[in-house]
């Protein structure tokens, strides 16, 4: 095959059509990967929100923006409850 030398797209050039098809295939593949990743992220966020806040009402969706804060607050509450139990147990024994 001869060298493909022109720098811009030339209508009717087989090699130009070939690289355009390759680019389209690459863009399509990237879009599919992004769609797959987005679907997976949405699933993770929905399940995390349900785990931290309980199942949402039907047709409703939890806010996701505060999930890190909710997790931090719940951990702090757990640590405090654990510390209080340990303190009470030590006082009683
Ligand atoms: Zn060409």
For the termini, the CA-CA separation is 89 Å
Percentage beta strand:
under 5%
The secondary structure category is mainly alpha
* Radius of gyration computed on alpha carbons: 28 Å
Number of helices: 2
Total number of domains: 2
Strand tally is 0
Tell me roughly what share of residues is in helical segments.
over 70%
Q: Bound compounds, please?
A: zinc ion
Taken in chain order, the helices and strands follow as HH
Topology:
Layout: H1 14-53, H2 67-92
Helix pairs in contact: 1-2
This protein binds zinc ion.
Summarize the structure.
By secondary structure, this protein is mainly α. It has helices spanning 14-53, 67-92.
Structure description:
There is one protein chain. By secondary structure, the chain is an all-alpha fold. It folds into 2 domains: 1-62, no CATH class; 63-93. Helices cover 71% and strands 0% of the residues. The chain is built from 2 helices and no strands. α1 (14-53) runs parallel beside α2 (67-92). The relative contact order is 0.06. The mean pLDDT is 92. The structure holds zinc ion. The site of zinc ion has 6 residues, from α1.
Give the tags.
binds zinc ion, 93 residues, mainly alpha, 2 helices
């Amino acid at each position: 095959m001869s060298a493909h030398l022109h720098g811009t797209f030339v209508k009717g050039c087989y090699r130009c059509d070939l690289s355009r098809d390759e680019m389209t295939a690459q863009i399509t593949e990237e879009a599919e990967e992004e769609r797959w990743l987005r679907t997976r992220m949405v699933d993770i966020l929905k399940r995390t929100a349900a785990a931290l806040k309980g199942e949402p009402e039907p047709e409703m969706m939890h806010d996701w923006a505060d999930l890190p804060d909710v997790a931090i607050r719940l951990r702090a509450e757990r640590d405090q409850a654990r510390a209080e139990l340990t303190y009470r147990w030590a006082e009683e024994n």
